[in-house]
Amino acid sequence: MELEKDIELQSDIGEKEVETHKRTDAKKEHRGKLLITLFLNTLYISTFTFGGGFVIITFMKRKFVDDLKWINEQEMLDMSALAQSSPGAIAVNAAILIGWKICGFPGMIVAVIGTILPPMVILAVLSFFYTAFAGNGYVALLLKGMQAGVAAVILDVVWGLGGNVIKERSKLSIIIMLTGFVAAFVFDINVIYIILAASMIGICKAILPRRQGVKS
Fold first, then answer.
1. Residue 213 lies inside a defined structural domain of this protein
2. Where are the beta strands (DSSP E) in 49-171?
3. How far is 89 from 83, CA to CA, in rounded Å?
4. What confidence score (pLDDT) does residue 32 get?
5. What residue intervals traverse the membrane (predicted)?
6. What 8-state DSSP symbol labels residue 63?
7. Per-residue pLDDT tens for 16-48?
8. Does residue 96 form part of some domain?
9. Domain range spanning residue 9?
């Protein structure tokens, strides 16, 4: 009897180990597919996006928020603010934040590589032909057309992110948004100062109710 119990116990342990290995393999496979999808999407977005960080953030939102639903709109809004307020290229900063959110450190590395690889290759090729392109009238017209398209995409970003702020129906957030726009557009105040001021207001908004709750 004891021998049979030992055999059954060992059999149960063996089955549990097999199930554990299967789950581990499934997680690794899922993580691998996730990283590949992340890399291919950031590579695609970076390859076919012209006009800078604000434009690429729009396409990242459409892909990772609207299509894949890996992150929500509020997280994307927060990441956009952090990407802009941090030193360095906005596109790379956004890739770091999105990659980290989706798949941790490996996701961050994959997203950054996918983002910087296309412009690095394209600029390396164009640098050899810069003198030929510089004085070409057709290239100049092409760039002007691209500028108009970029302006339209940036307006789309403003409309989408601004609409999310208005949907919250927070008077303070709307006032901060409008004040920041006036400060940047009318008074030409550096964006960094505007973001820092808005951040301080947000911190105060979060801290004050807690202190009042503690006192009461």
1. no
2. none
3. 8
4. 86
5. 34-60, 108-129, 141-162, 174-203
6. I
7. 554 555 555 556 677 889 999 999 999 999 888
8. yes
9. 2-136
Give the residue ranges of the chain where pLDDT is below 70.
1-28, 51-53, 131-134, 150, 153, 157, 209-216
Give the Cα separation of 39 and 44 in Å (integer).
8
Residue for token digits 């990659």? 99
Task: Let me know: does 113 contact 35? Beta carbons within 8 Å.
Answer: no
Q: How far apart are CA 12 and CA 33, in angstroms?
A: 31
- The sign of the dihedral angle between the CA atoms of 130, 134, 135, 140 is positive
- HSE-up of 70 (CA within 13 Å, CB side)? 19
**For residues 90 and 52, is the Cβ–Cβ distance under 8 A?**
yes
Instruction: Please state, in angstroms and rounded to a whole number, the distance separating the CA atoms of residues 124 and 130.
Output: 10
Query: Domains in the chain: how many in total?
Result: 1
Looking at residue 112, its amino acid is V
Report d(CA 50, CA 30) in Å as an integer.
Answer: 32
Both structure tokens of 38: 């992340």
